[in-house]
Structure formats: C-alpha cells, structure tokens
Amino acid sequence: MRIFEEITFSSRPVMFAAWPGMGNVGIISMDYLRSKLDAKVFAEIDMASFFIPDSIIVKDGVAQLPEIPGAVFYYHKNPDTLIFESSAQVAGKDGITIIKTILDIAERYKVKRIFTAAAFAQPMSHKAPSKVMSACNHPSSFKDLDKFHVVPMPDGYIAGQNGLLLGVAASRNIDSCCLLGTIPSFASNLSYPKASLEIVKTFENILKVEIDHGDIEESISIVDKQLAAIEERIKEYFPSVMEKEEDEVPNVEDEEVPRYIMDKIEKLFDEVKKDKSKASKLKEELDRWKLYELYEHRFLDLFKDDEG
Q1: Calpha distance 35→22 (Å, rounded)
Q2: Which CATH number covers residue 117?
Q3: In terms of domains, do 136 and 275 share one?
Q4: Which pTM does this prediction carry?
Q5: pLDDT tens for residues 122-174?
Q6: Nearest to 148 by CA among 201, 210, 213, 82
Q7: Shared domain check, 191 and 85
Q8: 59 to each of 56, 177, 272, 303, 307, how far by Cα in Å?
Q9: 1, 31, 33, 161: least buried by Cβ within 10 Å?
Q10: What range does the domain containing 251 cover?
Q11: Looking only at Cα atoms, what is the longest distance across the chain?
Q12: pLDDT in tens, 43-70
C-alpha cells in the first residue's frame, strides 16, 4: 500500500469501489464517475505480490510479461468522495486481503457507506430499459435507496470482489451496498454501458451532483447497434436451424434464443484461447449466424500473440 498524499475531508465521505465483471458494468460506471468528477489519485495497492501471470505478451516476436494490474484510490471534495478502481479481480485469500486494505482506508477516513457496482443478467432484449437493483449488508440502506427507485435484488449471489466486499465490510460494521444494473443474459460477455449509465445516475443522486452523460450515451449508441444486429440475425436464422437440428437445440423460448446462441459462441471463444485448432469450429459458428463481421476483430485478436 502506497499513500501519495494525506487528505482531509470536512464531512464523512462516501466511498465507491469497482472491479471488472459481467458486462463491465461496474468498472465502466465507476470510471465514468471518477473521470467526470476529475477525482485525484492519492494512494494505490501494489498488486505485484497478488498477480501471477499465466501467459506472456508477444510483440514483433519479442516476449514480455503482461503489465501488473492497477488498483488505485482517488478522492474528490465537495461532495466528499473516495473512489477505488482495479483493472483485475483477484480470487481467494489474496482477494480478501485486498478487500481488507480497502476497508482500512474506509475506516481511516470514516466513510459513511461504501458502494460497489455490478451487473444483473436477465432474459431481456437490449431494447428494454436497464433497472438498478441493490444488495446491502444493512437493512437501513434499502430505505435510503428506495427514494432513487432502486429495488432490492432478488435471491441469488454476486460473484467476485464487487460482492465479497459487502460481506467482509459487515464484519467491521461498515454499511455497504452493491448496485446492480440489469443486462441481457446474452450480453454478459460484452460491454453494456446502458446499465452503467443507470448506475451513474444513481451515483449522482447519492452525491447530489449532475454529470454530463454525452460520452457514455455515445458508447450506448454504438453498442446498441451491435446488439440489435446480433438479436435480429440470431432470431432470423434460429427457426431454420431448429428444423435441421432438433436433437441438438434445447427447448428455449423466443426471448432466450440470443442467450443460447451467445453462450455457445462464448464457450467456443474460451476453447480457442486454450486450443487454437478449434478456431475453425468457432469461425463456422459465427458464419452460421452471419455474425462474423461483428466479431472479426475479437476473432483475429485470438491470434495476435502468434504473429511473427
């Protein structure tokens, strides 16, 4: 842990924290809040001892280790705010150690509540509006969030540090909540800024500030076009495949069709990362649904490390 600047607040600050996760919803919303508030760096966690690379980066034939992920604390005054962002999740005992370090900072500055952010996948179209749900480690928090039209999350679980922080914080009696933006189930492996925007709006309500939405709305417009194309093409071609492959395709409702296909494609992407010989099968599946041009850059990125 390195602290670059000693800071003082005139009131108890609110703390926000996020890591990458489903749809990158949490980290996008946190990064947007931090940039629009122009928050300043004041500390960081040295991730060198927590990061164990499982591959190397090759550029022009030269091999090198990947960069160590960042884990940085920012601050903003009026409203008094602390923000923590990390570019990578760390599991197990090391992940809990990182959470405890964040909570040490929270106690040091007497934060009144911590908010993390994540996604909540549902069988919905990209056209449907994203809603914000919450999971909190203290019942009183729900009353405060209710006025912002944030509803309690249904029974389930929150994977990763965006969720684990709440449990560890409870052991220290630190009020903490995770705000979850709803996303289509089939988009869980794609960035989904529409949900991030709704969380940003909730952050604004919490802090009583107004933030320009122009940049994130531009991102939403770009992603919406991609998701619209994916949904339409899958629905267009799905009936014909059903007729040919009744034994292969499970019984799914119309709104679940994109999720089934996208899950299958994502599974193939994961397989190709481990075994490049399966690339032809992935390419065949993308061509089958007329989706290759939408995934071309991602497909070719699988082979960047092999160039040269």
Answers
A1: 21
A2: 3.40.50.10900
A3: no
A4: 0.78
A5: 878 888 899 999 999 998 899 889 999 999 998 888 989 999 999 999 999 99
A6: 201
A7: yes
A8: 10, 42, 20, 12, 8
A9: 1
A10: 217-306
A11: 68
A12: 999 998 888 877 888 888 899 988 899 9
